[in-house]
UniProtKB/TrEMBL annotation:
<dbReference type="InterPro" id="IPR042087">
    <property type="entry name" value="DNA_pol_B_thumb"/>
</dbReference>
<dbReference type="GO" id="GO:0003887">
    <property type="term" value="F:DNA-directed DNA polymerase activity"/>
</dbReference>
<keyword id="KW-0238">DNA-binding</keyword>
<dbReference type="GO" id="GO:0000166">
    <property type="term" value="F:nucleotide binding"/>
</dbReference>
<keyword id="KW-0548">Nucleotidyltransferase</keyword>
<dbReference type="InterPro" id="IPR050240">
    <property type="entry name" value="DNA_pol_type-B"/>
</dbReference>
<feature type="domain" description="DNA-directed DNA polymerase family B multifunctional">
    <location>
        <begin position="3"/>
        <end position="134"/>
    </location>
</feature>
<keyword id="KW-0239">DNA-directed DNA polymerase</keyword>
<keyword id="KW-0808">Transferase</keyword>
<protein>
    <recommendedName>
        <fullName>DNA-directed DNA polymerase</fullName>
        <ecNumber>2.7.7.7</ecNumber>
    </recommendedName>
</protein>
<dbReference type="InterPro" id="IPR023211">
    <property type="entry name" value="DNA_pol_palm_dom_sf"/>
</dbReference>
<dbReference type="InterPro" id="IPR043502">
    <property type="entry name" value="DNA/RNA_pol_sf"/>
</dbReference>
<dbReference type="GO" id="GO:0003677">
    <property type="term" value="F:DNA binding"/>
</dbReference>
<dbReference type="GO" id="GO:0006261">
    <property type="term" value="P:DNA-templated DNA replication"/>
</dbReference>
<dbReference type="Pfam" id="PF00136">
    <property type="entry name" value="DNA_pol_B"/>
</dbReference>
<dbReference type="InterPro" id="IPR006134">
    <property type="entry name" value="DNA-dir_DNA_pol_B_multi_dom"/>
</dbReference>
């Protein structure tokens, strides 16, 4: 690594983090030639999965979405099975269509940062807040 670092300009320096045996890199929507910035999942030689940018590491997604994505990435990275990953997605969709998901696993917790009338664009959380204020929320 030091030989490579000596050839780099200025104060730039590379550091070896780990060795990864498999990886998933997600492309930008509509642009297949380049990947999204910092959206990837890697499997280390020790079996540890490193995830950046996916929904399962974000707080503004439901538990069912995060858990499904986690299981899909594990199927692809640890088992190398795109078939199992597809089955996981199909099973989740079926569960949702049949209404077997628990409400707590479908909830998305988020916070609006300004008054409702100050938003230019609508979003699911903005619409939910409007319905809650209007009293049209089912509990």
């Amino acid at each position: 690594m030091s030989a490579v670092n000596k050839k780099l300009p200025g104060a730039m320096e590379l550091e070896l983090e780990d060795f990864y045996t498999r990886g998933v890199f997600v492309g930008k929507k509509g642009k297949s030639e380049s990947g999204a910035k910092k959206k990837y999942a890697l499997l280390s030689e020790s079996g540890r999965i490193k995830i950046k940018g996916f929904e399962l590491v974000r707080r503004d997604w439901s538990n069912v979405a995060r858990e499904t994505q986690k299981r899909v990435l594990e199927a692809i990275l640890k088992e190398g099975s795109k078939e199992k990953a597809l089955d996981i997605v199909k099973d989740t969709v079926k569960m949702l269509k049949e209404g077997r998901a628990e409400l707590k696993d479908l909830v998305i917790y988020t916070q609006l940062r300004k008054a409702i009338d100050k938003y230019d664009n609508t979003s699911p959380e903005l619409e939910a807040a409007k319905k809650a204020i209007a009293g049209n929320v089912k509990r």
